[in-house]
Design a protein that fits this description.
By secondary structure, this protein is an alpha+beta fold. The chain is built from four helices and ten strands. Strands 1, 2, 3, 4, 5, 6, 7, 8, 9 and 10 form a ten-stranded mixed β-sheet that branches. Strand 1 and strand 2 form a beta hairpin.
Amino acid sequence: MSNITPQIIAENGHFIVLFKPQGVSVHNQTPSLLEFVKEQKKPEHFVNRLDFETSGLVVIALNENLHEPLQNSLHKGIKKYRALLRGALPIEVGEKVIWNWPISDKAEGRRNPQGDKQNLKPSDTEVTLVRKNKYFSEVEIILKTGRQHQIRKHSALAKHPIVGDNRYNDDKYNLKIADMYQETRMQLEAESLDFQFKNEKYNFKCHTLDLDKYFSNLT
């Protein structure tokens, strides 16, 4: 469970933007964002969702009629993530690569992250290398499609799974890294949303991942 509580980042006449900590569900488990918004007497029309293990930004429509238009706006906008991957990506700092393996729209596992052939759907993930050493790569990621666990699956298919991912990375590796760095969370955050709604442009950001320790004195 996360020791950080959800926070309201912004609120206007159309929607609310929340920060969801790692270890908090949107609505399926306890603790959840649903419990939080009920306590705050806020609406429950979640426009987007994040995995239990992922921290980041979640949008709530103020009424049901705004839900679908906001979903469309977010779909057309830019959703940027930050992640720490296992190993050194074979690209240079600042270089971009597109991961486009077709994947299922279901939760899978490390043995078959792509999913069964009959369930595969086109999927595109844009990855930019921020920094790396022999052991880790910090990346910025823009989702071009929105399949379930897309970033997690594509990272695993690239042979660079997300550090701390208990579904698509190796358990022994995760335990070793958790012991070395005293950090058990999955290192993935939905850190910015950039979209237009009702002729207004919006940009929201959060940044809670502490990745410097993974690069200190390591080459």
